[in-house]
Design goal:
- Helices cover 45% and strands 21% of the residues.
- 33% of the residues are buried.
- Strands 1, 2, 3, 4, 5, 6, 7 and 8 form an eight-stranded mixed β-sheet that branches.
- The protein contains seven helices and eight strands, in the order βαααββααβαβαβββ.
- By secondary structure, the chain is α+β, with helices and mostly antiparallel strands.
Amino acid sequence: MGVAIRTADRTDRELVARLLDSAFQDDPVSGWIFPGEEYRRTTHPRLMAAFVDIVLEEGRIDVTEDGAACALWLPVPAESAEDEEGFAELREALDPDNERIELIGTLTAEVHPAGRAHEYLWMIGVAPGRQGEGLGTALIGSVLERCDREGVPAYLEASSERSRGLYERLGFELVDRPLDLPDGPRMWPLWREPGAAR
């Protein structure tokens, strides 16, 4: 039985933001950006909502029909430069004293490959009670099939060993070396050539 997937629109904003917030509350990178459970519980949702707004404007959000999982994709042209200023603006708007909101944008921009158009999987979230059911794989797979047909690579940063393993099974490979956040967890920049499914 397949997973029904649709493209989200503005009416899905709150659903997707809540889903990302719940999916990433215990994520190592979210914990680094927002140390302390209470702080993360109150501030993290605003960052997730801001990410949803950016991708609704500039990319595409796929969501499972039952609302249990979503994927945020941005098309990146070959001549694109990461918008590091955008993270400075996010910091100012959401949590001016938290330099890590801006720093994560700067550090990921430094490892993001340039020179080739690609699809960027910015975030994928699955409701905590539904993880392990193949929803994330279905969401990614639908875009990777299109990437394969059109000859377009894909890119992402894995924020945990568990997610890295999933992405590698889908044909993603480490770009250069892992990104170690200062006094924080490791991230893995992963690139997938079209047709690289294993």
